[in-house]
Specification:
Layout (H helix, E strand, L loop, with lengths): L3 E4 L5 H8 L5 H9 L13 E10 L2 E12 L4 E9 L8 H14 L9 E7 L3 H9 L3 E11 L14 E4 L4 H14 L11 H9 L8 E6 L2 E10 L4 E8 L8 H14 L6 E6 L3 H9 L2 E13 L4
Parallel strand pairs: 4-5, 10-11
Antiparallel strand pairs: 1-2, 2-3, 3-4, 5-12, 6-11, 6-12, 7-8, 8-9, 9-10
The chain binds coenzyme A.
């Protein structure tokens, strides 16, 4: 039977959830159900869904493709997620899904067009690497998952004059968090600019823990934050950010320690975080606070205009 490609529809949600839990796709994708990215594939927590497709055999999906657009300081870029279940691999289905995605991305559209397309996979994944290579993607970045080894976190030591304030849900703090996050990550190629609305919906997602979010102020000005999250099987230092003018004071370390301490007081088995492998200063900080690399995630990228 030849699989047919069609656009993903809202009523396909349960079938897509079942598909990504297939043993051949689960290692790559089930965490995206947890993170909210694939829970409803038409609504991404941080980006704009540009398109979603299914490959279907006798009414049941055997493959999917999703493409999400982001705006980073560097560019407008898009991230693809493509999965084909094991019995249907090496039949050009992944390629057909990608071709459909590229055609869609290159069609005239309202609004800014992404200039690069990324894909990513956990190491080792020779199929994804070969697929990327075959389709003109080049290695772009490595992300590391780090896990904190045993032992209680040290107490945070706040730099002189810095006052930590627990998240209060106010519009004032929402504005402070959004602005500080954008300033802290402005130099990072892959982080997207946050909007007030995006941050607000992040704080309203089920599972958001207001007590896991802390902002640091000096003279009434927000200089940093520590945002921590609980997932079903682990706790995550989701993001730690320090404004450029407050770097080198020990604020990042204090915020990290506060987050690890908070996570360790929750019923979380492990404390993890994800860091961009090119972010040397963050990497050094995490290592010095007892984190070690446990998994590697590869990111590939290709330009979109010369397909
Ligand atoms: C990566 C993936 C989507 C490829 O889907 P697919 O339908 O099997 O891929 P295709 O048949 O279109 O392969 C296209 C080319 O990719 C390369 N390729 C794909 N799988 C490969 C493998 N296991 N070993 C070597 N090369 C491979 C080949 O060059 C292939 O062309 P060829 O068959 O003419 O040699 C699929 O393996 C998968 O779902 N993996 C798990 C999810 C994942 O890792 N996704 C990462 C991208 S988000």
């Amino acid at each position: 039977v030849h699989p047919a490609l069609r656009t993903y529809e809202p009523h396909d949600r349960q079938a897509l959830h079942k598909l990504v839990r297939h043993p051949s796709l689960a290692p790559e994708f089930t965490r995206l159900l947890d993170s909210g990215e694939l829970d409803d594939p038409l609504r991404h927590p941080h980006g704009d869904v540009l398109g979603a497709w299914l490959a279907v055999v006798a009414g049941a999906p055997v493959g999917f493709a999703l493409v999400v657009g982001f705006t980073s300081p560097r560019s407008r870029w898009a991230l693809s997620r493509i999965g084909v279940i094991e019995p249907y691999r090496r039949r050009r289905l992944g390629s057909a899904l990608l071709a459909r995605m590229l055609e869609h991305l290159q069609a005239p559209r309202a609004g800014p067009r992404p200039s690069e397309l990324c894909m990513s996979a956990w190491d080792p994944n020779p199929a994804a690497g070969a697929f990327a290579d075959r389709h003109g993607f080049r290695p772009f970045r490595i992300f590391w998952t780090m896990e904190r080894q045993s032992g209680a976190a040290a107490e945070p030591r706040w730099p002189e004059g810095v006052e930590p304030r627990p998240w209060d849900g106010s519009e004032t703090m929402l504005g402070d968090l959004t602005a500080t996050s954008n300033r802290a990550f402005a130099g990072n190629a892959m982080s997207s600019a946050e909007t007030l609305d995006g941050m607000r919906s992040m704080t309203r997602r089920p599972g958001f823990r207001p007590d896991g979010l802390l902002l640091a102020y000096r003279d009434g000005r927000c200089l940093g934050f520590s945002h921590n999250a609980l997932h079903h099987d682990h706790g995550e230092v989701h993001s730690v950010g320090v404004a450029p003018e407050a770097r080198g004071l020990g604020l990042g370390r204090a915020l990290l320690r506060w987050g690890v301490g908070w996570l360790q007081r929750q019923p979380a088995a492990a404390v993890r975080l994800v860091v961009d492998g090119s972010n040397q200063s963050a990497l050094a900080l995490y290592r010095s606070e007892g984190f070690e690399v446990t998994r590697t995630r590869r990111i590939w990228e290709r330009p979109l205009n010369d397909a």
